[in-house]
């Protein structure tokens, strides 16, 4: 399980890499990343998010299926990055 | 060179007609970057590179079967070559300019439209694999390394794309000559280059600017660009929201009769139901209002436009909605617009330059008081 500090790093990456107009602290851990609710990201963001994860955490998300599983919310993404050694 | 097969002798790149011999009167009153010797050369060079690309794709396909899902793209390649007076059957031999001549011309004249040439090359290098069904269009056009390329393509710095923003902004200025306190709605604003052109042209005559775009990622980029252009002092004039041209505008917070100018560059041709979308846009206009479009137009019915090569790769062909001037007039009048004019005068432009394909379209709402 990712810690709050690790989740904050993920939120900072989201804000910086996707140029979101919000503070990292405004993103709820379980807010959906995509769709009308939550952050409302789209398919172009998904592509950029793959790059952002690779640049910030040196973790390569290799397939669409994998991306679909981890780009759910901050909790899921942070846990995945901890598991893959991208967040310590 | 096989003359018997009808091949055209290869030669260094040059335009079909020297610029100096063109009758420029239809373009004389356009803003300078919209019509210039540089743009004329660029326009013809893009067409030549696209045509060479079409031949290269068909050569690389060879005798391989075309995947049934890709026959539309195959048909486009052949049609494009016919429009250019080339024969697909002659393969690369038919290319009027050899690769090294085109590469030299792109190096000499193409720097101001580098992203356009990169996009074309992206499609051409994957074209045969696409026809064989080995890759899909979005994977080619929207791969990770392509997002930044699209941003550059739609940017003011792309000399092949930006003129459409400038022509549309000029058309808006003419549609509202002498008027101020304009309430503007932009649909499909993308990364904001059209908005910047309009703000540059109309400036303080705009009382409020509602910048909209259906895709959140582009909306964020566009918003940042427009805010930067407006500066902190003028940002109270700006509203930003997601609006989808394919849905009723009133459901998306745009009340009927609430704006004077609806502005859309390179957007409306992708509407799923053009008639319904045009009626929605007209409904948003206040009395005296006008819709101003910047659109790529076919020089005559059915004639291809070179950049279609890129969009023909998409499942929902975004170029399928390209129309000639008469078709735009019919569509706009059918949706209830009363007075439709083109900038430049398209008939005159195509008479002197038969492949001219860019226009500002002004469509005033019926009973308009706008001059």
Order of helices and strands of chain A: HHHH
Name the shape of chain A in a single word: globular
Bin the helical content of chain B.
40-55%
Sequence stretches where pLDDT stays below 50 over 5 or more residues of chain B: 1-5
Task: Tell me what portion of residues of chain A adopts beta-strand conformation.
Answer: under 5%
Note down, in words, how this protein is organized:
The complex is a heterodimer of chains A (88) and B (371). Chain A is mainly alpha-helical and 88 residues long. Chain A is 52% helix and 0% strand. Chain A is globular. Chain A starts with a helix and ends in a 5-residue tail after the last helix. The mean pLDDT of chain A is 91. Chain B is an alpha/beta fold. Chain B folds into two domains: 30-153, no CATH class; 162-365, 3-Layer(aba) Sandwich (Rossmann fold). Chain B contains 13 helices and eight strands. Chain B has helices spanning 37-61, 71-83, 99-109, 114-131, 137-141, 147-153, 162-175, 193-202, 216-230, 274-284, 308-311, 325-334, 346-352, and strands at 182-186, 206-212, 238-241, 259-265, 285-298, 323-324, 337-343, 358-365. The model of chain B is unreliable at 1-5 (pLDDT under 50).
């Amino acid at each position: 399980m990712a810690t709050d500090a690790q989740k904050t790093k993920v939120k900072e990456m989201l804000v910086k890499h996707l140029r979101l107009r919000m503070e990292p602290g405004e993103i709820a851990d379980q807010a959906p990343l995509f769709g009308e609710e939550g952050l409302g990201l789209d398919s172009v963001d998904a592509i950029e998010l793959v790059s952002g994860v690779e640049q910030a955490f040196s973790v390569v998300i290799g397939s669409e299926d994998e991306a679909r599983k981890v780009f759910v919310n901050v909790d899921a993404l942070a846990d995945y990055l901890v598991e893959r050694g991208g967040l310590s | 060179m096989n003359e018997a097969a009808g091949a055209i002798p290869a030669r260094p790149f040059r335009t079909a007609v020297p610029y100096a011999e063109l009758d420029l009167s239809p373009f004389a009153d356009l803003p300078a970057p919209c019509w210039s010797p540089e743009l004329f050369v660029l326009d013809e060079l893009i067409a030549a590179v696209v045509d060479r690309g079409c031949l290269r794709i068909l050569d690389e396909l060879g005798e391989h079967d075309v995947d049934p899902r890709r026959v539309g793209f195959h048909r486009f390649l052949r049609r494009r070559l016919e429009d250019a007076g080339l024969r697909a059957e002659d393969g690369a031999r038919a290319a009027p300019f050899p690769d090294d001549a085109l590469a030299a011309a792109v190096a000499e004249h193409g720097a101001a439209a580098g992203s356009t040439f990169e996009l074309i090359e992206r499609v051409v290098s994957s074209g045969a694999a696409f026809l064989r069904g080995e890759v899909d269009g979005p994977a080619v056009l929207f791969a990770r390394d392509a997002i930044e390329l699209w941003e550059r393509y739609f940017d003011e710095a792309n000399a092949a794309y930006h003129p459409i923003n400038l022509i549309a902004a000029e058309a808006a200025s003419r549609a509202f000559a002498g008027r101020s306190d304009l309430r503007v709605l932009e649909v499909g604003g993308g990364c904001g280059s059209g908005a910047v052109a309009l703000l540059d042209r109309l400036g303080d005559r705009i009382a409020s600017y509602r910048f909209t775009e259906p895709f959140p990622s582009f909306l964020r980029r566009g918003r940042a660009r427009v805010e930067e252009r407006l500066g902190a002092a003028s940002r109270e004039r700006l509203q930003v929201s997601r609006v989808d041209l394919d849905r009723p505008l009133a459901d998306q917070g745009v009340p009927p009769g609430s704006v004077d100018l609806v502005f859309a560059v390179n957007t409306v041709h992708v509407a799923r139901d053009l008639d319904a979308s045009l009626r929605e846009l007209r409904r948003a206009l206040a009395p005296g209002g006008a819709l101003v479009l910047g659109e790529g137009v076919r020089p005559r019915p059915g004639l291809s436009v070179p950049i279609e090569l890129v969009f023909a790769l998409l499942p929902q062909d975004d170029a399928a909605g390209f129309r000639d001037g008469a078709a735009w007039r019919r569509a706009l009048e059918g949706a209830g617009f009363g007075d439709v004019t083109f900038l430049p005068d398209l008939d005159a432009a195509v008479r002197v330059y038969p492949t001219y394909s860019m226009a500002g379209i002004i469509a005033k709402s019926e009973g308009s008081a706008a001059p």
